[in-house]
Amino acid sequence: MEEYDFLVIGSGSGLDVVNAAANQGQSVAIVEKERLGGTCLNRGCIPSKRLLYHADVLETIEQADAFHIDATVEDIDFAEIVRGVTADVHGSSDSIERGLASSDRHDLYQAEARFVDERTIELAGGDHDGERLTADTVLVAAGTRPAIPPIDGIESVDSLTSREALQLESPPDHLVIVGGGYIAAELGRFFGTFGSDVSIIGRRPHLLPDADAEVAAAFTERYADRFDIYTGSEATAAMQSGESITVEARPFPEPEGDGRDVDPVSVTGDELLVAAGRVPNTDTLNVAAAGIETDAAGFVETDEYLRTTADGVWALGDIVGEYLLKHNANHEAQAVARNLFGEVLEPVD
User: Fold this and answer.
1) In total, how many domains does the chain have?
2) Cβ(308)–Cβ(293) under 8 Å?
3) HSE-CB of 267 using CA atoms within 13 angstroms
4) Number of Cβ atoms within 10 Å of the Cβ of 263
5) CATH code for position 288
6) What are residue 288's phi and psi, to 5 degrees?
7) 199 strand-pairing partners
8) Same domain, residue pair 123 and 168
9) DSSP E strand boundaries for the chain
10) Of 126, 170, 291, 338, which one's alpha carbon is 20 to 30 angstroms from that of 159?
11) Is the full-model pTM beyond 0.85?
12) Residues 142 and 283 both lie in one domain
């Protein structure tokens, strides 16, 4: 069994901490089961913003007459837009992998990790299948994945999550989206700009429910001018007939007397995107074997310094569940590095 001073599970913002450990002269290991760089780079904010930039360009051209410029769009190679963004993202990920693989200060294990004991993991897959690693300090930064809500029939229809939607090389004729958060909003706008009819079904009274209430209300109103918006509706069933997918929804239960009048919904399209939140990857890590406690939703419990309930095990990023945003994970990585290698513990603010 290989022994290290420091081990990180995940290769997103956790890499900032592993680099700090290496700079302290510690032996370090990185375990990653997917592409290097984490969710943001590979399956999140980087590819989505790159795609949205193309939508911005298209909208600018279409609105050029407002600036007394006569401009038209003759052709759109949608597939090449998606392939180009994917190639750029993969290039960045490959660069991280080459850097770690060539480093004499980092050991990279491209495999899935599962805890078998305190600060000890077993690897599954790849060249190191079945091997075990242990470390004095372990950082859990393994992120989240798309949540699939309990919708009747969802397992029997050809649905997409954000991961597949970011790779879609032709815009749907009619995209039905279950979920009303920022992922639904971004991908709805992207495909809508390139010609898709878009229907969004969300349980909350407004889209972007975690935003300021006035902002969420104004945003929902703007989107309702472009798309079919069904807020206050919970998707209950999905069915497929040929290339058509139908989603049925009912009014989402709310306290009595809220004054809302929401009719049942039935929407049919040729693609279904499920963008109903994220779930932590703690279940795949077998965190209980390490004594790591989680909350009711499965997110890792930490103290104000980002220490878990297991001695010598820290956690940061989406798997902690505070704010599922890249800049928050980067901030937490700085806090963990400071607390591990500084003289005084400081709470993350």
Assistant:
1) 2
2) yes
3) 29
4) 10
5) 3.50.50.60
6) -60, -30
7) 176, 228
8) no
9) 2-9, 28-31, 106-109, 112-117, 120-124, 132-140, 144-146, 159-160, 174-178, 197-201, 228-230, 233-241, 244-251, 265-269, 271-274, 278-280, 313-315
10) 126
11) yes
12) yes
Beta bridge partners of 144: 280
pLDDT tens digit string along 254-305? 546 555 555 689 999 999 999 999 999 999 999 999 999 999 999 999 999 9
Q: Which tokens belong to 139? A: 């950082």
Q: Which residues contact 188 (CB under 8 A, 6 or more apart)?
A: 175, 177, 198, 200, 223, 227
The residue type of 69 is I
Helices 213-226 & 182-193 angle (0-180, nearest 10): 30
Phi, psi angle pair for 79, to nearest 5°: -60, -40
- At 116, the amino acid letter reads V
Last residue in a domain, options 276, 310, 328:
276
SS3 label, residue 328: helix
pLDDT digits (tens, 9 = 90+) for 239-259: 999 999 999 999 997 546 555
Does 72 reside within a domain?
A: no
Residue 318's SS3 state is: helix
φ, ψ dihedrals at 16, nearest 5°: -60, -35
Q: Is the dihedral of CA 82, 85, 88, 89 positive or negative?
A: negative
